[in-house]
Amino acid sequence: MTTAPEDADAIATRRATVAQLRATGLSIREIAARLGTTKDTVHRDTQALSRDTATPSDQDCRTPVAPDILTVALPAATPATDPATPSRDTATPPATPAVPTLTVPLDTALLADLATLTRNGTTPALAIRRALAYMAGAYRQAWDADLYPPDADPVIERHAYTPYRPR
User: Fold this and answer.
1) What is the pLDDT of residue 60?
2) What is the dihedral of CA 60, 73, 17, 133, to 10 degrees?
3) Residue 7 belongs to what H/E stretch?
4) pLDDT tens column, 105-121
5) Is residue 118 a contact partner of residue 16, using CB atoms and an 8 Å limit?
6) At what angle do helices 108-118 and 5-23 cross, to 10 degrees?
7) Nearest-angstrom CA–CA distance, 153 and 139
8) CA–CA separation, 28 vs 40, rounded Å?
9) For residues 77 and 97, is the Cβ–Cβ distance under 8 A?
10) 3-state helix, strand, coil in the chain (%, to 5)
11) Which positions ≥6 away from 78 have C-beta within 8 Å?
């Protein structure tokens, strides 16, 4: 059985909410009552979250530094195509280029943060893109202003908010 993309987003959002509520100490029954679902659904979600965050004991759990992440996340340069044109009878359709993908283990804290960022209806992918763009911009700004050396993580102490104005 294949899950539709809308269903997958709904499940991911529900699981993030389940993780956040479990982190606050609520029972499976209490979470089910809050979400208007069954305790069996919440139980399956917690099992799926446990499977997703499980780490083999022999796996290196250290976070790779930026160059390693880039090596893993970005595909190698596409090889040049052969200048010889095959005949129409033997031609195969060109392969669709692979889209770079980043895989991150989802622990309880990350799922809780994602649940917060998607509470207003934003998709998980858009929430992650916005958060990453915001932090990258803050880091670039601190480094460009020579407030921090490029090998140090800037400390962000304050946020500025624009007042909410309904459209």
Assistant:
1) 43
2) 120
3) helix 5-23
4) 888 888 888 888 888 88
5) yes
6) 120
7) 7
8) 9
9) no
10) 50, 0, 50
11) 97
Whole-angstrom distance, CA of residue 162 vs CA of residue 167: 14
**Cα–Cα distance between 20 and 32 in angstroms, integer?**
13
- pTM of the shown model: 0.42
- Give the separation between CA 15 and CA 143, rounded to whole angstroms: 37
For the segment 144-154, what is each residue's pLDDT rounded down to a tens digit?
999 999 889 99
Specify the pLDDT at position 79. Answer: 46
pLDDT in tens, 47-70: 887 776 554 444 444 444 444 433
* Distance, CA of 118 to CA of 41 (rounded, Å): 20
Contacts of 37 (CB under 8 A, 6+ apart): 14
